[in-house]
Design goal:
By secondary structure, the chain is an alpha+beta fold. It folds into two domains: 60 residues, no CATH class; 129 residues, OmpA-like domain (60s Ribosomal Protein L30, Chain: A), CATH 3.30.1330.60. Helices cover 56% and strands 15% of the residues. The protein contains six helices and five strands; from the N terminus they run H-H-E-E-H-E-H-E-H-E-H. The protein has a five-stranded mixed beta sheet. Helix 4 links the parallel strand 3 and strand 4. Helix 1 packs antiparallel against helix 2 and helix 2 packs across helix 6. It starts with a helix and ends with a helix.
């Protein structure tokens, strides 16, 4: 199933709830739920299609980056294999990392109607408290560089987890490398939803 279709299903679920309110206004709650579901599915499909296009653009421009569509969202993993690399116990972005993030910034400018969550993670080398602080600084380094590239700071939320959320085996060199990562989640914002609703009214 395409993500635009998944978006339609998500929209339909939300629309059915909204439709219950519509139903009160038309004296037929079930009819209102059906109408709301149809509207929600259409809106969800429009949003899903745009997020599909954005994800495809990211994959084309940044082929080494892991990109996944999760419901309405786009999830990007920056690790050593994707060109975003941090020296041990460092959070400064090197030239290669900046080049990769600059490409993302260009795409975020092309698709401005989204919220951006940045999450920092580390492997389990070193003290847990130090890794927590390190993951914070690394996540903020990515965010701050995106802001320097002209992305509105109001779009961002930053979270950090240190070594507490490994995705890979921390007993191997490869696993540690993949756990030293920054994840970026791009989500449709309310303006994009408003535009989708306006589009079906035209």
């Amino acid at each position: 199933m395409k993500n635009s279709e998944i978006g339609g299903l998500i929209g339909a679920a939300g629309g059915a709830v909204i439709g219950g309110v519509i139903g009160n206004q038309v004296d037929d709650t079930e009819l209102g739920a059906v109408i709301g579901g149809m509207v929600g599915a259409t809106v969800g499909g429009i949003i899903g299609n745009q997020m599909d296009q954005q994800a495809k653009k990211i994959e084309e421009e940044m082929p080494s980056v892991v990109v996944q569509r999760v419901e309405e969202d786009i999830n990007i993993v920056f690790d050593e294999e994707s060109g975003v690399y941090f020296e041990t116990n460092k959070h400064d972005l090197n030239t290669s990392s900046k080049e990769t993030i600059h490409k993302l910034a260009s795409i975020l400018k092309e698709y401005p109607y989204s919220n951006i969550l940045i999450e920092g993670h580390t492997d389990n080398v070193g003290k847990e408290e130090s890794n927590f602080v390190l993951s914070k600084h690394r996540a903020h380094s990515v965010k701050e560089y995106l802001v320097e590239q002209g992305i509105d700071e109001q779009r961002f939320t930053v979270r950090y987890y240190g070594e507490s959320q490994p995705k890979y085996d921390n007993t191997t060199v490869e696993g540690k490398s993949k756990n030293r990562r920054v994840e970026v989640t791009i989500s449709p914002n309310e303006e994009l939803r408003r535009q989708a609703v306006a589009q079906i009214k035209e």
